[in-house]
Amino acid sequence: MAIEERPPYVLERGQSLADVVHGQMLALIDDGSWSPRSRLPSETELARRFGMSRPVIRQALAMLRDAGLIQSRQGSGSFVIGPPDAVEQPPEQVLFPAIGSIADITAFVSFREGMEGEIAATAALNRSKEQLATILGVLGRFREKRALGERPQDDFAFHLSIAQATGNPFYVNSLTSLREQMTMGMALIWNFSADRPDFRAVVADHHEAIYDAIRLQDAEAARDAMRRHLRWAGARILRGDDAEANKI
């Protein structure tokens, strides 16, 4: 990501640029963009992508190595070992119903609005400095010029990173179990809006409003921002209506 493409970083007290890049790298590992056993780009390429100096990149990579997430091999580079829980048995997933009608979409949007509103509020109260950096790392992708087909995965990664910041495994498992339904709805929105040059910026603005409330640990504002965003997204799917967007 070029320097001019990324949003300005807002550092928490005691947070360094290496912490921010570390959070972005963690997000790439968590959502599978950097899959287990894959080779990481060179330090030069990472510095260009994140718009940071090589010393900052080295510090962020060292944090990943210390956490056992990557392994460096002399002469070969660094390789992903996996997310922190990669060696653990994954939790049993909740079986949610498939979406096959307009009524299903309406019910699903209402369900997400209630659940994810509380997820955002809980994340605002419980998030750690590292989890906030991870959310910011995912958020930065919405200002990048990424392919349309990658957008639903970026969108889902943002919402999942907030669930992870709650510290509540029930929220995380619920969203993970809803990946198929959520990415399907997100793909519809992104595909419907492919000819809208301002759409990417609107989604980024909505997500930044949610992030800012979580950063400030304002639970009410986080809940409201998330619910307004999902209400707007539902209106986009069902009616192609932008009216809710102006309320963010």
From TrEMBL:
SUPFAM superfamilies: GntR ligand-binding domain-like, Winged helix' DNA-binding domain
PROSITE patterns to which the protein is assigned, alphabetical: HTH_GNTR
InterPro entries in the cross-refs: GntR_C, TF_FadR/GntR_C, Tscrpt_reg_HTH_GntR, WH-like_DNA-bd_sf, WH_DNA-bd_sf
Lipoprotein as UniProt keyword: no
Superkingdom as given in the UniProt entry: Bacteria
Gene: gntR
Sorted UniProt keywords: DNA-binding, Transcription, Transcription regulation
Name the record gives this protein: GntR family transcriptional regulator
Residue ranges of every copy of the HTH gntR-type domain listed in the record: 15-83
Organism: Devosia yakushimensis
